[in-house]
């Protein structure tokens, strides 16, 4: 693991790239950011946030929201002010949804978008019946130390419990404009009200094209919605996913070969450029 959190993984030397909107990727269920160190050049600053409980063995009493708030604080302490893109693989993408909601309207760090790497809508299991779910068996390198295996497995178990208890944030519908705490109605009259829920930022979804190999007629938990290009997110909010990028491999093999890493790098890079372009268009529309 690394001393700094966030960990600066890529720091472009070329000035134009160094000034690109930074990408901050949250750890997967295992708590580490090792996979992000395997990515190719993204031509922008890349940070990774790992789970501090990986070493301490602690837990997040407030679950996903508690973890997300802490990671927002880490970003505010370490990442230069301005536009940012957040995201992550699997659990990392889920955390980013909660973090984007917390940071909505933040004047110092503006989340212009989310990059989810094969993050499945977590409540999809509530809509599955008659499917035999097979738990994924961790694959270890023969040189992996037992303490590492224990830490990763502990983080996975805790993450699974937290996601199961998590109530996803509620976003606004964008139909009402707020002016100094007053909601403006269609006829121009206004009435005092509570601030409306924020709108979500654009979400780019990288979707693994293959299913995880399992024995028999079972299905991996991450594949119950594999045939749905939205990976179940349509059940959360209409048009929540802005764009989908297919990538080779299955959920657990995205970062395990040179070809798949190259493909993932290219799609993440493209997704970030798309988010930057959309942010520029929104700014122009507002006359900024």
Describe this structure as you would to a colleague.
It is a single chain. By secondary structure, the protein is of the alpha/beta class. It has one domain (7-127, 148-160, 199-285): Alpha/Beta hydrolase fold, catalytic domain (Rossmann fold). Helix content is 31%, strand content 18%. The protein is built from 7 helices and 12 strands. The protein has a 7-stranded mixed sheet with strand order 1-3-2-4-5-10-12, sandwiched between helices. Strand 8 and strand 9 form a beta hairpin. Helix 4 (63-78) crosses helix 5 (91-103). The radius of gyration is 19 Å and the shape is globular. The model is unreliable at 176-187 (pLDDT under 50).
CATH level 1 name: Alpha Beta
Terminal Cα span: 41 Å
Number of helices, counting only DSSP H or I runs of 4 residues or more: 7
Cα-atom radius of gyration: 19 Å
Query: What form results from the Cα inertia axes?
Result: globular
CATH superfamily: Alpha/Beta hydrolase fold, catalytic domain
List unreliable stretches of 5+ residues. 176-187
Number of strands: 12
| Largest sheet, strands/sense/barrel | 7 strands, mixed
Write down the overall mean pLDDT. Answer: 88
Keywords: Hydrolase
Pfam families: Thioesterase
Domain Thioesterase: 22-126
Protein name: Alpha/Beta hydrolase protein
